[in-house]
Amino acid sequence: MALAGHPGLTGAANKQNHEGEGAVDGMSAISERPVDIGVADRPSAGRSETPTAADGLGRGQRDGARSPAEAEEVLVLSGLTKVYEPTPRWMRVLARTHIKSDVLALDGIDLTVRAGEICAIVGPNGAGKTTLFRIIVGLTTATSGEGTLLGLDVERDSEQIRQVVGWMPSDDRSLLMRATARENLHMHGRLQGMSPRLMATRIPEVLATVDLESRIDTVVAGLSAGMKARLRLARALLSGPRVLILDEPTGAVDPIAAHGLLDLITDLVQRERLAVLISSHRLEEIEALRSQALLLDKGRVKYFGDLDSLREQWERPQLELVFASTDAADQAAADLTSLGLELTVDGPTVRCWLKVRDGAGDVLAALGAGARQVRHVREIPMPLRDLIARAYRHDQTAEGGPT
Amino acid sequence: MSLAYTAPIGRRGLWRKSLDTCAAYVRIDLVEERMFPATTILRYAAVVFPVLLYFFQGSFLNATDAFAFMLIGASVTAGFQDALTALTNRLQFAQERGTLETYLVEPVPWALIPIAMNIWRSVTGTVMAAFMIAFGSLLGAQIEWRSIPLALLVFLVGIAACNAIGTLAASFIILFKRGEPVIMLYSLAAGVLGGTLFPISVLPEWIRWVSYLVPHSYVIAAERQLLMNDPPAEGLSPLVSLAILTGFSVIMFAIGLTVFDRSLRLARKLGILSI
C-alpha cells in the first residue's frame, strides 16, 4: 500500500485495510496509484492524507496539469440551473401537482469552494439554498449547467459523492428519535461502509469531538435541541468527509450553544481543511465564521466573495456626531442636509449616513467652524443584516423595482 | 484528535453494499423491537384470535381437516400481510417524518433500500405464520411436521414475491406519496383469489386464471400439500408450486426494482423525492 507514508494513518488502520475491512473492491489498487486529485495530494496540518472514494474517480480533475489554485478546488458549480416543473399530466390522475407552472429555483449559479474554505449561502426563504444543497448531494438534478465535487460529476457520480460529503440536514427529524446516539451513528457508519470494529472506536471519538460522549447511549428523543444539533454534526463527520454541507445547523439551537457549534466547525475547517457549505439565517453567525458569502435571491447570485469585500462594496457606515449643544447640532444638521446627506437629529446628537466609506473627514470639513462644537465622533459600522439588505435593494432598484 | 478517517472507505462492490445496507436496517429494526417489547408481544397475541376463530368454525362444521385447511391459509396470509404492509408503512413514515432524506444521502444504491427495509418484517412475518401453525397444532390441527423445512422454503420464496410486490408499492409511494391503494387492492384480492379459506377450484373458471397471478395461491396450495395429513386431492405438487413461485419472484423483483428505479429518477428530476 502506498499509504504507509501518510502521517495520519495508524498501524491499526493499515492492518484493518489489509484485512479487507473498508478496503473493498479494489481500494488497494486505488491507493497505490499516485493520488492526483482534489486535496488529497496536498499536505495539511493534522489531516491524514487518506484517499477516499473520490480518489482515482475524479475524471475531470485527473486530466492534464492543474494550477495550485485549481488543485485546491473542491466544489465547482458552473451555470447551475434548476427549474421545478409541474408533475406530468399522467401523474395528476393520482396526485395533485404542488406547482401549476415552472418555477425557476436556481438560475445559472457559478460557485467555487476550495479546501479549507467556508462558503455561507445566504438568502431569503425560497432563494434556492436548499435546492443547491439537494443538487450537490443528488436528491434532485439540475436542469442545466454542471457541477463537480472533487472531480465527481454531481449528476452521474451521485453515489460516490455521497461517500465524501457530510450532510447535516436542517432539522432534528432526520435523526432516528427512538434510537440512541450510538445507534444513529452506527446505522450511518454501516451504510457508509465502515466496519463494526472501526465504528467501535470511531463513534466515541466523534461524539467526544462534539462533546456528546457522555450521551452515547441516550435515546435521541431525550436530548436537548443543542445536543441533537451536535449529534447531527457528529453524523456528518463520522466517515471523515472532505466536504461538509450544513443546512441551517443552528436553527433550533440557543445562541450560546450555536456559538460553540460554530467554533467547532471553524476549528474543523482549519484543522482538517474541509470545504464547507453552510446556510443560516443568523447573519451574525455568518460574520463570525469569516467565510465567503454567496447571496442568493430568487435563484440568482447577488454577490459572491468575502464579507470584507462585501463591506467595501456596500457599507454605508453611520457617523455619530455629539455636539456641545442642541443649537449647534441643529445648525450642523442644516449644513449637512444641504450637502445631500441623510441624517437624523436627536438632541445634541446627529447621525448621518456617509456616502462613501471613508467620508468622515469630508463631513467634518463640511461643518467648517461648526466642527469646533463637536464633542464626540463615532463611526458605527453597518450591521451585516443591513449590508445584505442594501445589496438586495440595490439590485431591485437596478431592475426597476422598489428601493 | 484528527477527525480524518483513518481507514479508507473504498469503492465497495454491490455485494458488500447490499450486506452493509441490510445489516444497518435490520439492526435498527431490532432496536425498534427492543424499544417497544409490548408491541411485539401484542402482535403475536393478536393472531391467537383468528386461530381460535377457525378452530371453533372447524368444530362447528365438525371437520378437523377444515380447521387445518383454514389455519394454513390464514397463517400464510397473515405472515405475508406483515411483509407486505411493513415496507409501505415504513417508507411513508420516513417520508413524512423526514428521515427518508437521510437514508437517500447514504452512498448505497437506492434500489437496495426497500429490500433492506423489508428484511426484518419478512422474518417476523415468517415467525408469525409459524406461531399460528404451532398454536393451531396445540388446538388439535393435524400437521405433518416432517415437511416443515420444505414448507419454510416455500414460505420464504413466497415472502420474496411479496417483497417484490412491496417494491412496486414503494414506487407508488415515491411518486404519489401514498402506497396503501396498491397494498390494499392486492391484499383484498389475494384474500379471495389466493384461496385463504377455500380451494381456488371453487372459483368460477373465468376468474380462476387471476388466481394464478397471485403468489398467495401457490404458497397456500403448496403449504396445504406439505403440512396437512390429508391434503386436498387437486392442485399442483409443492415442487411445481415452488418452481413457479421462484420464477414469479425473479420476474416480479426485476419489474419491481426497474419501476422503483424509474420512479426515483422521475422523483429526483421533479424534486419530489423526499417531500
Automatic annotation (TrEMBL), chain B:
InterPro entries: ABC2_TM, ABC2_TM_bact-type, Nod_factor_ABC_transporter. It is a multi-pass membrane protein. The keyword Transferase does not apply. Its main location: membrane. Keywords: Cell membrane, Membrane, Transmembrane, Transmembrane helix, Transport. GO terms for molecular function: ABC-type transporter activity. Residues 28-263 form the ABC transmembrane type-2 domain. Coiled coil: none annotated. The keyword Phosphoprotein does not apply. GO terms for cellular component: plasma membrane. The chain crosses the membrane at residues 41-60, 66-87, 123-143, 149-176, 183-203, 236-260. It is found in: Cell membrane; Membrane. PANTHER family: ABC-TYPE MULTIDRUG TRANSPORT SYSTEM, PERMEASE COMPONENT (PTHR43229:SF6), NODULATION PROTEIN J (PTHR43229). Belongs to the ABC-2 integral membrane protein family. This is Transport permease protein.
